[in-house]
Specification:
The protein is an all-alpha fold. Helix content is 60%, strand content 0%. Helix 4 runs antiparallel to helix 5. The longest helix has 16 residues.
């Protein structure tokens, strides 16, 4: 089993790249959906190596927020990041049977209804 620090660093490095506001602010709702699920799939690869906690995701959120100034962008894409982080916290730091024991396609279908313009996206 990999150490916590190694896994957290891998995930955070991926989030730094993916949550670059230059790219994030230009995504349509459908593109954001695809992006959202690809990040979930990436993090899901690590689920059996280390059980991520709510504190891990708060750390991710704080690190990303301090790395980029999302307020400089017209659509305030921090709302997209916040929506994403809220879902990460709920899905990955909550004990089973949430994300860990579900079929990924079922998970995607359940979550798709949350992607609307009025939801900060």
């Amino acid at each position: 089993m990999e150490e916590r620090e190694v896994i957290v660093r891998k995930i955070l490095e991926k989030l730094y790249v993916e949550f670059n506001p230059e790219n994030l602010s230009k995504l349509s709702i459908d593109q954001y959906k695809d992006f959202f699920f690809s990040i979930f799939e990436y993090i899901n690869l690590h689920k059996n190596k280390y059980h991520l906690t709510e504190e891990d995701f708060v750390e991710f959120s704080n690190s990303i927020h301090h790395r980029y100034n999302y307020d400089e962008y017209e659509d305030n894409c921090w709302e997209r990041v916040a929506f994403f982080m809220d879902e990460l916290i709920f899905r990955f730091s909550t004990p089973p049977p949430y994300f860990f024991h579900s079929n990924f396609e079922d998970f995607k279908n359940k979550l798709k209804r949350d992607f609307t313009e009025g939801n900060g996206l």
